[in-house]
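Q: Sequence in, structure out?
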Amino acid sequence: MSKTLIIDDNRELAKILSAELTRRGHIVHCAHSGQEGLALLDRVVPDLIFLDLRLPDMNGTDVLAPARARCPGAEGVIMTAYPHLSSALAAIKGRVVDYLCKPFTFEELTPVLERALHHRERQQERAHEHALEQRDERPHLSFRQLVHAREVEPRGGVPARARDHQTAGRL
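A: Exactly. Output:
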């Protein structure tokens, strides 16, 4: 179950998209301006952000950088009724996963949603693998290597097994 944030000034579209995503099992939050969306990010950590490119108070691409800073793991999908090469390039620079041209159908939404969720899953796997690598930098030793390490333990230059025999002889 993914948390999804929709930032779109078209309340009707946001309502329809929210209902469809809820039907598909998402927890959905909606905002209708860039500032409202950014304020919502202080309380909600979404997995996906559907973001309109033209908002009443700011450009959608201007929302991307602070949204990424607050929720680095969230995947972005730009939605726009005004597709231009420059807006597509700005979206790509903002590291969005996909770009939807309005109006779109639920059939067009499905592969975009799947790609975004798949991309998020891959990113989480990579982050998890990296964290494991950082946490466990020691070489892994087999049981035989651990026993051998115990036998040649350099305490005072005497192998551990010989030291154990010396100690036992004094008792």
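The first helix runs from residue 11 to 23.
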